[in-house]
Design brief:
eight-stranded parallel β-barrel; 8 strands
Length: 258
Amino acid sequence: MRTPVIAGNWKMFKTVAEATALVREMRRDLDEVTGVVKVLCPPFTTLSTVAELVQKTDIKVGAQDMYWEEQGAFTGEISPAMVQELCQYVIIGHSERRQYFGETDESVNRKVKAALRHGLIPIICVGENLAQNEAGQTEVFVGSQVRAALRDLTAEQVSGLVIAYEPIWAIGTGKPANGAGANRIIGLVIRGTVASLFGETVAQAVRIQYGGSVSPDNIAEFMNQPEIDGALVGGASLVGAKFLAITRQAAVSKGANT
């Protein structure tokens, strides 16, 4: 059984004071949810605060990005060693990083390798835009993103990472993909691509999330699908009650006790 991962991507929201209030609001109840891995991914400025607040719980912390170099004259960047001090996970290749900040398949691959060298678990984001979806290019495009991200990795490395399928047209739009459609892409394209590269055993070990307008109202639709192993949650992760409801429902859908 693959243990689902529910990760909250706070994006560019929450000051230190706001992050503190949010974590304190949901920390006890979130800690009590079992059967799923719970990850909070706040902005860099609040990582140390959030890491300290969840220190005595089983809630994990993730960064939203990182650079691949160990150190150096890279103004504004954060190294893997810096992330490793505070986090267990790191989001890599989110569509917003690709769209607004020039992230490429090559840079994603370099960041994945750097994260793994430092014992971090990458959450690798892949997904097509609306034009690609409507043109029937989803399978080719998403498959190529997966192959590029996993280039030169070992089977052991791949089996332990997380992939998030985030159709760009569903992110923040209130128009999520439906459960069956997301399940098909995750199983056929993403898990299928991993199987073609590393074998079926590795493909069955990789956890693959869905992301894109996830809410308490639709999380069960996705989590009841056999290929979907959690969610990368955006806007709903900024509201304690919503993120807690999503996490609880995910645990129930996968047969875990809460």
